[in-house]
Amino acid sequence: MVVKNIYDELKNNPYPGRGIAIGRSENGKNAVAAYFIMGRSENSRNRVFVEEGEGIKTQAFDPSKLTDPHLIIYSPVKVLGNKTIVTNGDQTDTVYDLMNQQQTFEQSLRTREFEDDAPNYTPRISGIIKTDKGGFNYAMNIIKTENGDPETCIRSTFSYNNPKNGMGHFIHTYMGDGSPLPSFEGEPELIGSIPDDIDEFADKLWDNLNSDNKVSLFVRYISLETGEYKTRIINKNK
User: Fold this and answer.
1) Which domain holds residue 182?
2) Quick check: 45 pLDDT over 90?
3) Is 201 contained in some domain?
4) Nearest to 226 by CA among 98, 134, 155
5) Which residues pair with 55 in a beta bridge?
6) Chain segment 68-95, per-residue pLDDT in tens
7) β-sheet with 189-191: strand ranges across
8) Helix (H) or strand (E) holding 108
9) What sign has the CA pseudo-torsion 35, 49, 45, 215?
10) Stretch 9-26: mean pLDDT, rounded?
């Protein structure tokens, strides 16, 4: 698989929609997760990320302009013990609740389908990081239609053990802009050169997201030695 530059991927795609990147910093010391949201409508753009416990939630920047919270307001990130869950919708709660009942990441997502936003039928994308004794593994999942047909639901899970230093994977909801929006295709993209510095990574991701459509970005670095983490949140609305 070709190793891609995530900054170029973002710069060359005006509307990847929502995206999750997971990997390992170049020095090997940190598990890394990033999640961003974009928007074309006023309702989608009227959002910010705010911290919620060890995770985050979306929140209306101007509550008076919120017209429909459905698919807009949710908790993208939650932490369950040594597991960090990152998703693009309320399936974060599904994964958290069912894994807390001893089901697996994949089993929990079998209970969900793509979003009910016809004609786009936006894919649900999810990721999970599990840290353990100085190491970690992660998985990504996508739930989507088959060629835009809502009668068929495809659920695919990709698991990654012993990730290489500086490497990771990137999955997003759309291949680009369009009407209807074209769903992501293939397996998560292999990305490289994940820096050791959280601010460098966050700033470069943010700078390469389309300036008109970007809304919010979350980045977390989890120390594999101590389990402590650093978080950065960037919101367009301030």
Assistant:
1) 6-196+206-235
2) yes
3) no
4) 134
5) 52
6) 999 999 999 999 999 999 999 999 999 9
7) 189-191, 168-172, 19-24, 30-38, 214-223, 229-235
8) helix 105-109
9) negative
10) 98
Alpha helices by DSSP H, 110-213: 198-208
Backbone φ and ψ for 47, nearest 5 degrees, come out as: -140, 160
The residue type at 16 = P
Both tokens of 168, joined, read 């990771």
Q: Give the C-alpha separation, 66 to 72, whole Å.
A: 9
Domain count, the chain: 1
Q: Does some domain include residue 1?
A: no
d(CA 218, CA 220): 7
φ, ψ (nearest 5 deg) of residue 28: 80, 0
Residues linked to residue 49 through DSSP beta bridges, in sequence order = 58
Distance CA 226, CA 44 (A): 37
- Residue 105 forms part of a structural domain: yes
Strands, E assignment, 72-134: 77-80, 83-87, 124-132
In a domain, residue 152? The reply is yes
- Distance from C-alpha of 93 to C-alpha of 230, rounded to nearest angstrom: 22
Locate 113 and state its tokens. Answer: 């389908």
pTM of the model: 0.97
